[in-house]
Specification:
globular; 267 residues; mainly beta; Beta-galactosidase, Chain A, domain 5; 8-stranded antiparallel β-sheet; 4-stranded antiparallel β-sheet
């Protein structure tokens, strides 16, 4: 199945493509002319499957929700936004874009709040790309919980995963946990930004270069995950761990807008 894709170009050969019809997913991201994302085209083309690749948008939750007292039993792992074909383009010009998903009968059946969530992108003069994930609570009186995130798949040969270097606070945990995250498990660490406002994630990826991920402190956790025999690594900025929407959500007040920001660049 063909899904419409919007492409935005910026300085220094940076480029980004996104698909509102396919969950608003970031389908391609070129930094200084080099494609950094992995995409499984078979899953992208199959509306019945979750896309394996790109940057899926996780909203309102990242990870599964479990427990007897879960008030959102029909909310799937990673939320409803990545499955929606109702994203609308607000802006798609040279150097920036914005897409919006508004609540509707389907979303309120699984998450009963009036809201708008957006993905904004800016292609910067230095060849980097900044993504801003945003939500506005349209409820008149109720606060709304969120625990959102992003799920980037970065290109790396399966045979080179062991040689990835994680040069940041907590990176030694990731390297020591290779046998877990490379085999379908998930390694979870604090975003070093919450302890050091200047901290970034500097990741040396064979065949790609040094990828610098500057995730704002709203994303308190970083998840690392891959699958055996697959040519990708996921480095995911998320607000909380599994169940965070229930146990420790970010509460957004009525009429308030809450956002997190991630900048990606190649050194």
């Amino acid at each position: 199945m063909e899904f419409k894709t919007e492409t935005v170009q910026g300085p220094r050969d940076n480029e980004i493509s996104f698909s509102p019809e396919r969950g608003g997913i970031i389908r391609s991201m070129k930094l200084k002319g080099k494609e950094v994302l992995f995409v499984d085209e078979v899953t992208f083309a199959d509306a019945e499957k979750n896309v394996r690749g790109g940057i899926p948008i996780l909203f309102p939750n990242a990870g599964p929700l479990t427990g007897e007292n879960n008030p959102y039993p029909d909310l799937k792992q990673h939320g409803f936004a990545r499955l929606s074909n109702q994203w609308k383009v607000e802006e798609s010009n040279a150097g920036k874009f914005s897409e919006k998903l508004a609540s509707n009968e389907d979303t309120k059946a699984v998450f009963p709040f009036d809201l708008e969530t957006r993905m904004r992108g800016e292609l910067n003069e230095d060849g980097s790309v900044t993504l801003t994930q945003e939500v506005t609570n349209l409820e008149a009186e109720r606060e709304m919980p969120v625990s959102m995130g992003l799920h980037p798949y970065f290109k790396v040969s399966n045979t080179e995963k062991r040689n990835i270097k994680f040069n940041f606070a907590g990176g030694e945990i990731v390297e020591a946990d290779f046998a877990v995250w490379s085999q379908g498990g998930t390694t979870r660490i604090d975003n070093p930004k919450i302890h050091d406002s200047e901290a970034v994630l500097r990741v040396e990826i064979p065949g790609l270069g040094t990828l610098v991920i500057d995730a704002s402190a709203e994303y308190q956790r970083i998840w690392i995950w891959s699958l055996p025999e697959q040519d990708f690594i996921c480095i995911e900025p998320v607000m909380r761990d599994d169940g965070g929407l229930l146990d420790d959500p970010q509460m957004v007040k009525p009429s308030e807008t809450f956002s997190g920001r991630v900048n990606f660049r190649l050194e």
